[in-house]
Amino acid sequence: MSAKTTNQKAWLLVAPVVVLVAFNAVIPLMTVVNYSVQETFGDNLFFFEGMKWFEEVLSSERFHDSLLRQLQFTFIILAIEVPLGVAIALAMPRRGFWASVCLVLMAMPLLIPWNVVGAMWNIFALPDIGLLGKTLNAMGFDYNFTRQPFSAWATLIAMDVWHWTSLVVLLSYAGLSSIPDAYYQAARIDGASAWAVFRYIQLPKLKHVLTIAVLLRFMDSFNIYTEPFVLTGGGPGNSTTLLSLDLVKIALGQFDLGPAAAMSLIYFLIILLFSWIFYTVMTRGEDR
């Protein structure tokens, strides 16, 4: 009886992916880890500092304020975009010409580059010449997103809702389209109301796509940088300085590589922790 031979040449097909991931992810990550425990004064002279930068960041009031603003922004846009996206998906036609038109219109905001979105809304919301800003001021509202923190926040949230609600709509629409007609036929026979159909048929079937939508929007909102940078630059003052903007200011504006590296690792771990919490909560009870 001949011994079984194992061919390991298939690993050669995986090798390019491993090399690419190492180059794009692992090596930069280890570089950040290296900077986070050292101090440098130029000329490639490094001095080991241990956990000093992590302690400094975690005890910094500046970091706490940026994190609080980030959490507020993330939970506000999730509270708006997820219900709004589901409502729009429910209102869209399922078949025919208008279904295609609605899908194209919903996909259009997602195709616009992030820096263009920020520039568009910056011009759109200018209090003197922008359509939004001038209209609001003409209606009697005191609106100036360049000077008023509340106006800046409202404009930033409106911009994100306009840009990213479409993602939730398309995911929800795909989930609704996958529900077999037999469920709706049974509901009509039982005389179920529209709310009952949504509560007991559509919402349970949307659970998985909504989990994906919430996770994607959470991670995207926590990593947002280009749009608020172009729109408000973190102002007025620091009122819209989110974590990403503050991190870039520390790394490139102040060139404090050690604190910036430590903050980026803490930033990364916060995203992982909240993503795990979201996923655990939304998938709880599925095994039963």
| Arithmetic mean pLDDT | 88
CATH superfamily placement of one domain: MetI-like
End-to-end Cα distance, whole Å, is: 47 Å
CATH C-level class of one domain is Mainly Alpha
How many E strands?
Answer: 2
Order of helices and strands: HEEHHHHHHHHHHHH
CATH architecture of one domain: Orthogonal Bundle
Proportion in helices: over 70%
Using only C-alpha atoms, the radius of gyration works out to 24 Å
Largest sheet: 2 strands, antiparallel
What fold name stands as the CATH topology of one domain? MetI-like fold
Tell me what portion of residues adopts beta-strand conformation.
under 5%
Name the shape in a single word: globular
Structural class: mainly alpha
Features:
single chain, 288 residues, mainly alpha, 13 helices, 2 strands, 2% strand
Word description of this protein:
The protein has 288 residues and is mostly helical. The protein has a domain at 62-255: Orthogonal Bundle (MetI-like fold). It has helices spanning 11-36, 52-58, 61-91, 97-107, 114-124, 131-138, 149-177, 181-190, 194-205, 207-222, 226-231, 243-253, 257-282, and strands at 38-40, 46-48. It has a two-stranded antiparallel sheet. Helix 1 packs across helix 13 (257-282), helix 2 packs across helix 13 and helix 3 packs across helix 7 (149-177). The longest helix is centred in the first third of the chain and has 31 residues, at 61-91. The protein is globular. The two termini are 47 Å apart. The model has no long low-confidence stretch (mean pLDDT 88).
